[in-house]
Amino acid sequence: SNTPVKVAVTGAAGQIGYSLLFRIASGALLGPDTPVQLQLLEIEPALKSLEGVVMELDDCAFPTLAGVEIGSDPNVIFDGANIALLVGARPRTKGMERGDLLSANGAIFTGQGKALNDHAADDIRIGVTGNPANTNALIAMSNAPDIPSERFSALTRLDHNRAISQLAAKLGVPVTEIKKMTIWGNHSATQYPDLFHAEVSGKNAAEAVGDQAWIENDFIPTVAKRGAAIIEARGASSAASAASATIDAARDWIKGSAEGDWISMAVASDGSYGVPEGIISSFPVTTKNGDWEIVQGLEIDDFSRGKIDASVKELEEERDAVKELGLI
Ligand code: NAI
To answer: Which residues are noted in the entry as NAD(+)-binding (predicted)?
Structure first.
């Protein structure tokens, strides 16, 4: 159809935004035949910088970009939004305790959750990239009682893509040979990238690697600490790759995951795999027509069980902390 899809992006003047907006506007999210209207949210002091980004968007003359609106009021910017990508968040600064970080982000995500609840379109899908992503998504979801909880997700697709890339490099195969990668748990250093259910050219990935020590001491920590390695090398946190994963996640959610494969998404648990109901935890999921389903029936051995439980415990602690702060 020719009606533009309204895509809201928060933190639009930030580093991820600088990559993300141009990819969305060029059709990477919804394809070359679907016009998009960008609705960009920033805090007041960043609006001038965002105006510069909009000038650049104009200068690209993207055929799929139907219009751009910017502002600092989520009630206005989320109006009629079909997709909301919540990228803007309060980063942890020096001397900030975890509780301070959770309450600073709590203020942002309670307000944005309410604004989405009151103003977004009926078919809204919400992806949270801003950290702590899982718990920010939980806060937004809890403050949007009229939006079905399955419309909220947090981004673990970057971790998923990193895991695919590391495994492909280890085995010397193209990334396209790797299927059924899973990230379990939190988008944090406790996340569990799982090779025991992944496949390489149709064969079990852990068996193809055949080296438990590499999995435990190399693969898992490399994927889990990749964000820190990029900060160390680049002097800034991952941005283009985070934008790319944000697009991959939203595109697959709406357009559907590939036949014979699955993706990793942090979604509200229904109790699958012993993850407490309601927690936003990463699972293997398949998607179709904007709905996701957790892949069922995977056998979880003791090693994987321990890793999943450790990450889920961290998520429960974050949930308890934001509950105590009255944010959910
Ligand atoms: P950045 O600091 O460059 O940009 C964030 C932007 O958000 C800033 O322009 C800021 O003004 C804006 N912002 C802050 N509060 C806002 C609010 N209430 N409403 C609207 N905008 C607001 O950060 P960057 O590099 O773009 O990263 C954004 C977030 O994504 C961070 O929280 C980062 O930790 C997270 N991230 C998540 C990843 C994931 O895989 N889930 C990967 C990489 C980054």
So the answer is: 11-17, 105, 112, 129-131
Q: Say whether pTM exceeds 0.90.
A: yes
Measured from the Cα of 155, ligand 1's closest atom is: 41
Tracing tokens 């693969």 back to the chain, one arrives at 219
Q: How far is the CA of 165 from the centre of ligand 1 (A)?
A: 24
Task: Provide the CB-side half-sphere exposure for 39 (13 A, CA).
Answer: 22
Cβ atoms 269, 276 nearer than 8 A? yes
Q: Can the peptide bond before residue 132 be classed as cis, meaning omega within 30 degrees of 0? A: yes
With beta carbons less than 8 A apart as the criterion, state whether 273 and 144 touch: no
Ligand 1 neighbour 135 (Cβ under 6 A): no
Q: Which of 43, 47, 49, 127 is nearest to 81 (CA)?
A: 127
List the residue whose alpha carbon is closest to atom 3 of ligand 1. 14
- Give the residue, out of 76, 129, 264, with the most ligand 1 atoms within 8 A of its beta carbon, to mutate for a pocket test: 129
Q: pLDDT tens across 80-121, in order? A: 999 999 999 987 888 888 788 888 999 999 999 999 999 999
What is the separation of C-alpha 6 from the centre of its chain, rounded to a whole number of angstroms?
19
Residues contacting 45, CB < 8 A, separation 6+: none
Residue with tokens 């009926």: 122
- 41 CB within 6 A, ligand 1: yes
Q: Enter the ipTM.
A: 0.99
Tell me the one-letter amino acid at 59: D
CB of 239 shorter than 6 A to ligand 1: yes
